[in-house]
Write a structure and sequence with these properties.
single chain; 245 residues; alpha+beta; Pdz3 Domain; Rossmann fold; 2 domains; 6-stranded antiparallel β-sheet; 5-stranded mixed β-sheet
Amino acid sequence: MKELSRTTPLADGYVRRPQLGYNVKPREDGQVEIVGVTKGRSADKAGIRVGDMLVAISGHPIKARIDLADSLANTRIGDFATLTVLRDGAKLDLPVEVGFVDTAEPLLAIRRILYEEKKVGLAVIGGEIINVKLTEPVALEQWAKGVKSNLIAKWENRFLKYFVNEKGFSIVDRHAVEQVMKELNFGQSGMVTEQFRAKLGKTPGATRLMTVEFSRFGDSDTEKQRRIEIETGKALARSTQRPTQ
C-alpha cells in the first residue's frame, strides 16, 4: 500500500486522503453504525461488518461523522489503524490497513461541512471565462457561453452523484440563480459582491456558492473553483486544476 501511494500520481485539483472502506450513519441513540463495507477494501479484509457499532479509531472516540475525518488526519497510508467496534454486545479491536482515495477538492470541502451535520444548498455559477486565441467578440461570447454552461452542468452532476445519499445536500435551482444574476447584471468578471450574496441568500435553501472559472492560453487549459459561504461571504476554499479531456 505504501508503494502504491508513492507511485500513483495525484491529479491537479485532487486531495489524497486516508480511507478504510466503509460507510457509517449516526443513530438517534448517539451510536455510529457501519452501514456499508466496500468489498475487497481494507475494512472488509479486516472483518468489519455491516451492523457493527463504531466506538473508536486508534483510541479516538467516534461520536459523530466528523470524528472519522479527524481521527485519521495524522495517519499515514499503509499504516494500521485499530477500529474498536461493538458487535452483539462484545467489544472488538480490529487492525485495519489504511488505504487512500483521491477526491476532487471541492467535493471534499463540501463533504466536511456535511460531516459537521450542517445543511448545504449549493449554487454553482460560471465566473470569468478567458480564451486568448479568440479575439472576435461574437465568437468569444458564444464560446464562453458554451464553456460556462458545460462547467456548471459538470459540477452540478458531480456533486449530486457524490452526495446522492446525503439528505442535507441539495443543488439550488439553476433558474433561480440565473434570475438573481440577471437582476443584478452579474458580469463576465465573476466578482461576487455583497449585494449578489444578499440577493442569492434569499433564494430558498441557498447556503454555499461555487464559482467556476476557465482560461485557455495557447494549448493550456486551466479551471479554477472558488467556494463562498453565502451568509458571511467567507471564502471556504479555492482550487485549480487542468480539466480532464
